Amino acid sequence: MIDEGQLVGIISGSDFVGAAINLLQPHEKISDEVEIGEDLEVDQLDDRGDL
């Protein structure tokens, strides 16, 4: 990472893996809670009204 032309940090592959895991965990929880049937419509899943 560079800030104002100076090296301030190094991002490694494990940093990217950690970020990916953190981003996927909420998605995994949601997909475990909702089983989508063939006849289920998107608006039936939209609890917040933002889909």
Please tell me about this protein's structure:
With 51 residues, the protein is mainly α. It has 2 helices and 2 strands. Strands 1-2 form a two-stranded antiparallel sheet. It is elongated, with a radius of gyration of 19 Å. The model has no long low-confidence stretch (mean pLDDT 76).
Low-pLDDT segments, ≥5 res: none
Q: What does the oligomeric state look like here? A: single chain
Helix content: 40-55%
Q: Within the largest sheet, what's the order of strands?
A: 1-2
Helix vs. strand class: mainly alpha
> What is the radius of gyration?
19 Å
Quick synopsis:
With 51 residues, this protein is mainly alpha-helical. The chain has helices spanning 13-33, 42-45, and strands at 2-3, 6-7. It is elongated, with a radius of gyration of 19 Å.
Write the layout of secondary structure elements.
Blueprint: E1 2-3, E2 6-7, H1 13-33, H2 42-45
Antiparallel strand pairs: 1-2
Features:
mainly alpha; two-stranded antiparallel ribbon; single chain; 2 helices; 51 residues; 49% helix
